[in-house]
Amino acid sequence: MPEVAAGWHLCFDVAERLLDGYPVGPIRGRKARDHGWEGLREIYARQLEETCLNQQMV
Q1: Which end of the chain has fewer CB atoms within 10 angstroms, the N or the C?
Q2: CA angle 57, 45, 32 (to 5 degrees)
Q3: Distance from C-alpha of 26 to C-alpha of 18, rounded to nearest angstrom
Q4: d(CA 10, CA 27)
Q5: CA 4/CA 39 separation, integer angstroms
Q6: How far apart are CA 37 and CA 45, in angstroms?
């Protein structure tokens, strides 16, 4: 799931640039790693893990 979240994050970054008038091409595959995908995946993994743990405590 964190991989999907990181991918969508990059999709929204691309969409934001397009709407701001600075379009870029698609960012996917190995190219995504050059745009911070790995770091985003780690962040989302931590956030999702914390969310799951918090829900289990309730």
Answers
A1: C
A2: 160
A3: 11
A4: 7
A5: 13
A6: 12
Residue 36: the pLDDT is: 93
Residue 13 has a pLDDT of: 93
Average pLDDT over residues 8-24: 95
The tens digit of pLDDT for each residue in 23-35 reads 998 888 888 899 9
pLDDT for the residue numbered 35: 92
Q: Residues 26, 14: contact at Cβ < 8 Å?
A: yes
- Spatial distance between the Cα atoms of 22 and 43, rounded to a whole number of angstroms: 26
Measured CA to CA, the distance from residue 15 to residue 53 in angstroms comes to 32
Using CA atoms, how far apart are residues 42 and 39, in angstroms rounded to an integer? 5
